[in-house]
Every structure is written in structure tokens, then in C-alpha cells.
Specification:
5-stranded parallel β-sheet; 5 helices; globular; alpha/beta; 183 residues; 8 strands
Length: 183
């Protein structure tokens, strides 16, 4: 299993499989359901009885707002993701983080703080940070009022996303453009 497999998870199709390289969207009725599913997928919550949740490797969550630390620059946030998941030097983490940030189109904001960049750039910084952990699955949490994930990821396609299974969790079908429906 190289990706994500969900079976008998309440509120989802009976069986949902997302392979590495695929981008799928799940629409849930309420923001609380979105959060519960994100917690389940990242291991913060136990699966319900008889449900199966299998991931082919590490799972990383990108919260709707990007999940950034406000006292760190964009580059500092991506480096922090590397340092907390790998035993590497800070210099090596900075070099790898620059590559991840460039892949997400963030090269012009590396020295800025989260409050100094747009919500879309904060979201992309969260993706760069997640990619730095070399996960097999990235869960994108969505929220109304923010740029859609599909629009952000299509501006500058990132080849590193081909190495992960990408799951968007949203409450609105109008925010799923660019993702296959999880059926």
C-alpha cells in the first residue's frame, strides 16, 4: 500500500483509496467533520470501530491557514519542518528547504513573516513545510474565504507533489476544482 486507504469511515465512501500521485477531494458537511477527519488521518484520533485507516508512510496535515509559526520567516517555517522530522544539520535543512520553497513558488518571500504574505502564500508555505518531511500522504484542510487549493497548486505545478497522495478535505463542492472526487 503506497498512499492512503480508508474503509468504513463514517461520512466517506465505503472504500477510498488514494495512490501516490493522485489528488482527491472529500466534501464533509461541517467544519467540525473536516477537523475530525484530519485528526483521524494524522493519527491524533483513533478510527471508529470496524474502520480501516492505512497510510503507506508518513502523513502530514496542512491546516487551512498554513499552520505556520508566526515568529519564523517563510524559510524558517520550512526549515523547522525539516529539522523536526530529520536528523540533519541546520545548513542542510536550509538548502533542502530552499528547494521545497522554490518548488512552491515562494522564492520571493523567503525572508518575510507569515503576517506579511497573502493567505495563499501562507498555504503554499504549509505545503513546502509538509513536503520537507517526505510524507507519502498530505492532507489539505480547506476553509471558505481562502484561495482554493486547486487554484494555488495549479499556478506553479510542483513535481514533488507527484510523490505523495494528496487529500483535500472541504465543506463545499465548489472548492474542489483540480481534485478528483473521492467516490
Amino acid at each position: 500500500m503506497d498512499g492512503l486507504l480508508l474503509e468504513r469511515v463514517p461520512g466517506l465512501p465505503e472504500r477510498l483509496r488514494i495512490d501516490v500521485g493522485e489528488q482527491r477531494a472529500v466534501v464533509v458537511p461541517h467544519a467540525a467533520d473536516r477537523r475530525r477527519l484530519a485528526d483521524l488521518l494524522t493519527g491524533l484520533d483513533d478510527p471508529p470501530p470496524n474502520a480501516i485507516v492505512l497510510a503507506g508512510g508518513a502523513v502530514r496535515l496542512v491546516p487551512a491557514e498554513g499552520g505556520l509559526l508566526p515568529h519564523l520567516t517563510v524559510l524558517g517555517n520550512v526549515v523547522h519542518g525539516h529539522l523536526t522530522t530529520h536528523s540533519i544539520t541546520k545548513q542542510a535543512a536550509r538548502e533542502q528547504s530552499r528547494v521545497q520553497a522554490f518548488g512552491c513558488g515562494l522564492e520571493d518571500v523567503l525572508d518575510r513573516y507569515p503576517h506579511e504574505i497573502t493567505p495563499g502564500r501562507r498555504r503554499l508555505t504549509g505545503v513546502a513545510r509538509a513536503l520537507g518531511a517526505y510524507p507519502r500522504v498530505i492532507v489539505l484542510e480547506d476553509a471558505n474565504g481562502l484561495p482554493t487549493w486547486g487554484s494555488l497548486l495549479s499556478i506553479r505545478p510542483n513535481p514533488d507533489l507527484a510523490s505523495v497522495a494528496l487529500l483535500l478535505i472541504t465543506t463545499s463542492t465548489t472548492r474542489t476544482a483540480g481534485f478528483d472526487d473521492a467516490e
